[in-house]
Amino acid sequence: MMNMNMDKKSLMKIITQASFALDDTRLFLDTHPNCQEAILYYNKMQETRKAAWKEYTRRFGPLTFYEVSNEDYWEWNKGPMPWEGGNC
How does DSSP classify residue 69? Predict the structure, then answer.
């Protein structure tokens, strides 16, 4: 479970780090498909990323347009985005 007191920047850091770990572990598993330790680590990182993503979007809004509902259609990208100098 994610810490409810985490700020936007901290949640984004968890998402970014978990995403990197997933990509790196997937590459390792491509050549070591039976490594149980790597599989367990991959699953743990997947859960971590999913929980951080869910908490981020619940508190701060969608990270991609795939998560936009009809209620806030195209409102998700108002203001400067984090890569444009907006709040992270």
Answer: -
- What is the average pLDDT across 41-62? 93
Q: How far is CA 40 from CA 5, 11, 25, 48, in A?
A: 28, 22, 10, 12
Domain boundaries of the chain, sorted by first residue: 7-60
Locate tokens 């997933």: which residue? 22
How far is residue 42's CA from residue 18's CA, in Å, rounded to a whole number? Answer: 9
Question: What whole-number distance in Å separates Cα of residue 58 and Cα of residue 43?
Answer: 22
Mean pLDDT for the chain overall: 84
Give the pLDDT of residue 76.
56
The residue assigned the tokens 């598993």 is 29
Token pair for 36: 């149980």
- For 69, list phi and psi in degrees, rounded to 5: -95, 170
Structure-token pair, residue 53? 């993503």
pTM of the model: 0.75
